[in-house]
Amino acid sequence: SAMAEERALAMVTCTAPVNIAVIKYWGKRDNDLILPINSSLSVTLHQDQLKTTTTAAASRDFTEDRLWLNGEEADVGHPRLQACLREVRRLARKRRGGSAEDAAPLSLSYKIHIATENNFPTAAGLASSAAGYACLVSALARLYGVEGELSEVARRGAGSAGRSMLGGFVQWQRGERPDGRDSLAHQVAPETHWPELRVLVLVVSGEKKQVGSTAGMQTSVDTSPLLKHRAEAVVPERLALMMRHIRERDFEGFGQLAMRDSNQFHATCLDTFPPIFYLNDLSRHIIALAHRFNAHHGRTKVAYTFDAGPNAVIFTLADTVAEFVEVVRCSFPPAANGDQFVRGLPVGAASLPEELLAAVVTEPVPGAVRYILHTK
Ligand code: DP6
């Protein structure tokens, strides 16, 4: 460079969280820019239990771009990864054009090496692409000294990744512009706003084969009249309502709406042609269990939500965790294979009253839930 001496090597490491939508994103109006047909709202999960860690390095001595996912080399040419890389470099170029404060800029022409890993098994079926792309974009941005709004870039990796750029309660606004400049994530409330909120991921046993989100939502957009109705008429009202429940820390309102929205998302999957089935018998069993538990207590104490797979994510408050975990343990007696049944944050002991057992634990299915991950 004629401007300043360039560094020969730079390396950064970042982490990023998983997020779970309570108003679901399903359907794009632009496949290339990843612009959604409706806004969505999610809860970002704590990184102690679920996170992606990515190290990105750029060097004068690298001869090609390379990528490793959980220790295995993977295709660096993936179009979405390339889109993120291109966008971060574009922002870096723009920033450098504006000021010369960076004494030793990293050459944008150096090849890069990226290594990324999750602290949770892929079998957990948790949207690892959201944490993965959020982490990739954070690492690249730090590497090139880019700051500011980056959800727009992460969105180019996976729609839901834009929401993992922020903590707490996050809204992804669909935006109106065709270029997507207003399709961004915003924090609705920080994590400190509702410290009692807890999350239980019920990892179910069984097959992993399913339709991916990208292909599934495309077929839904093409064929489901219910999805169109949802995006136009249902989601706008639900978003406003959900934000109010969060603002007021109204768990019953929050939980009921989260369950309804998950159910409507899966209804649009059934309305897709050919239909898509993400829920299985066990998912439905868990849904029924949650409703029996709430009915027994006479109020909404637990709420389920499901994404593009059969694992249940349960929202509840700290004072209900021990009792509900015991209900799950009795309903799905764990196989005595030495595996830890409850993982993550500690769960206290609870003994279930006789009436609760009789009313809620109806037909136990041994071994059906592999383990529970407790997080917040
Ligand atoms: C069901 O973000 O994985 O989890 O944008 O095509 O990469 P692409 O899809 P992705 O979709 C997530 C869908 C969902 C709902 C949600 O997280 O809002």
Automatic annotation (TrEMBL):
Keyword field contains Transmembrane: no
Domain Diphosphomevalonate decarboxylase-like N-terminal: 16-185
UniProt keyword DNA damage present: no
An annotated GO cellular component: cytosol
EC supergroup of this enzyme: lyase
Domain Mvd1 C-terminal, chain residue ranges per copy: 199-376
Coiled-coil zones: none
Catalytic reaction list: (R)-5-diphosphomevalonate + ATP = isopentenyl diphosphate + ADP + phosphate + CO2
Family label: Belongs to the diphosphomevalonate decarboxylase family.
Annotated function: Catalyzes the ATP dependent decarboxylation of (R)-5-diphosphomevalonate to form isopentenyl diphosphate (IPP). Functions in the mevalonate (MVA) pathway leading to isopentenyl diphosphate (IPP), a key precursor for the biosynthesis of isoprenoids and sterol synthesis.
Transmembrane segments: none
Pfam families on file: MDD_C, MVD-like_N
Name used for this protein in its record: Diphosphomevalonate decarboxylase
Pathway(s) served: Steroid biosynthesis; cholesterol biosynthesis
Keywords of the record: ATP-binding, Cholesterol biosynthesis, Cholesterol metabolism, Lipid biosynthesis, Lipid metabolism, Lyase, Nucleotide-binding, Steroid biosynthesis, Steroid metabolism, Sterol biosynthesis, Sterol metabolism
Gene Ontology biological process terms from the UniProt entry: cholesterol biosynthetic process; isopentenyl diphosphate biosynthetic process, mevalonate pathway
EC number: 4.1.1.33
